[in-house]
Design goal:
One of its GO terms (cellular component) is cytosol. This is Rrf2 family transcriptional regulator. The chain is mostly helical. It has a domain at about 5-90 and about 130-135: Winged helix-like DNA-binding domain superfamily/Winged helix DNA-binding domain (Arc Repressor Mutant, subunit A). Helix content is about 45%, strand content about 5%. It has 6 helices and 2 strands. It has a two-stranded antiparallel ribbon. Helix 1 crosses helix 3 (about 40-50) and helix 1 crosses helix 4.
Length: about 140
């Protein structure tokens, strides 16, 4: 399992809005500049987040984006499961649309891979966007949430 750029940038965008949004609409250009992300690339990610109800968008003067709810109501898993839906399985045979492996019934490792997937989901579900927004910047390795 490898978290893509889309997943990582989506989390950064959500954290940025939690830190700087103050429940106001923030122009995508400002988020892109603060996060050093291409505005065009961020726009494609933002469309998904709006479509899935994690963000609210407003056009025109004073437009932009804001979180649709309190930052502590979102988990990292909420974001990743939307943007990485097909890539979060730890092995190919556990991907959502994969064909059933002919060895699944006798495979000695399948339960281990399932547990790893469960632990990953549990871990990312335990961290909220609000918690990440509250971390001292920069966040140093070895500190725990």
């Amino acid at each position: 399992m490898k978290i893509s750029t889309r997943g990582r940038y989506a989390i950064r965008e959500m954290v940025d809005l939690a830190q700087h949004g103050d429940n106001n609409y923030t122009p995508l250009k400002e988020i892109a500049e603060r996060q050093d992300i291409s505005e065009k690339y961020l726009e494609s990610i933002t469309k998904v987040l709006v479509r899935e109800g994690l963000l609210i968008g407003k056009r025109g003067k004073n437009g932009g984006y804001k979180l649709s709810r309190d930052p502590y109501a979102y988990t990292v898993w909420d974001v990743l499961s939307i943007l990485e839906a097909d890539d979060l399985a730890p092995v190919a045979c556990l991907e959502p649309d994969s064909e059933k492996c002919p060895r699944a019934d006798k495979c000695p490792t399948v339960s281990m891979w399932k547990e790893w997937g469960h632990l990953t989901e549990e871990y990312f579900s335990s961290i909220t966007i609000g918690q990440l927004a509250d971390l001292p910047q920069p966040f140093f390795e070895g500190a725990y949430i």
